[in-house]
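Recap from last week: sequence in, structure out.
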Amino acid sequence: MGQFLFRLPDIGEGIAEAEIVAWHVKPGDRVREDDPLLDVMTDKATVDMSSPVDGVVVALHGNVGAMAPVGSVLVEMEVGETDQQPQREPKSELDSRPTEPPALAVPTVQQPSPVSSPSHSKASIGKGVNPDPSASPSTRRRAMEWGIDLHNVPGTGRNGIVTVEDLQRHRAAPSRDARVERTEVEELPVVGLRRRIAERMAESKRHIPHFTYVEEFDLTELENLRATLNADRGDRPKLTLLPFFMRAVVKLVPAFPSVNAHYDETRGMLKRFAAVDIGIATQTPQGLMVPVVRHAEARDLWDCAREMARVTTAAREAKASREELSGSSITLTSLGPLGGVAATPIINHPEVAILGPNKLLEKPVVDGAFLTKRKVLNLSASFDHRIIDGHDAASFVRALRRLIEHPALIFMD
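Predicted structure tokens:
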């Protein structure tokens, strides 16, 4: 028998360490060559580490959430004489898809226990635990007086007979509806993608002075147009509101170039982009991701909808590449029907603007001398106040409202 040390390999240029996000083995497990050992996450990708040899796992080094330096030992294995071989570069499958956060151990919740004996426990008390109860007439009378169904009482007497003591234990056990003070504390480590999200959100709020502007939009005309287009769409994707907002943003970028930009505070440099690469904030089983619809300026309404559906589906199914999840120049975020009246969206650093349509509602609106019903929503937009002044932010949102409220203008040169 010999020892084999599995070390974290050099998995990318400039990467000095990686976060352990999931273990697939434990001490004592026998593994074959190419069996998965663990997943690690870097700033660039998630990497699945597999075993280069056959052997038995002796020890693991590093808890989930720990940062491991390149070259550090992760797994100790015992290998047979015939299995020993020079250590080679471990196989790894680069996978830019964000993975699901690792399964976390959930502490056992302790419930107050009733008075018990070696032959009786609270776990045995429940509805229908004794389908054919036997009891003496006095015990049955006592059960009737106390309002106890003997079918719910396990018997501990000879041959399973229910005794008065069994009734007393059942009566003392807390009912399902009893209000009991609870003192458990559940601790869940924040690791993997959730840690990355937390770090990026904190970085954005720490470095960017947010300015949020909320404006009401009347979407009655746009909704009529959208219904008409969807009715005759054929094999084209169903249009949601976001493709219209995407095309409206494209229309406005030439007049408001600073909203489609990145701010590099270390260099004091604003990078304004000709390409309109729109990030779509998307909730996935792994957490919040922002897949990107690239070059929206070169896409029509249907193509925007088609590409948005493709990249958001890829993100939800954990199939999006790193390129599809980075590099946006401005972000749209929407909770759709779950959206509230208003929000304060957090800017996707290093961008300088984010737009958040809220829930679409029908409201009574005064139209001249009449009261009419209209479809309206509030748009919540946040801006980097270091770059965009309040006047410019308000002007941009009002120009956006004009296009959305009169959607024909979106398609006019």
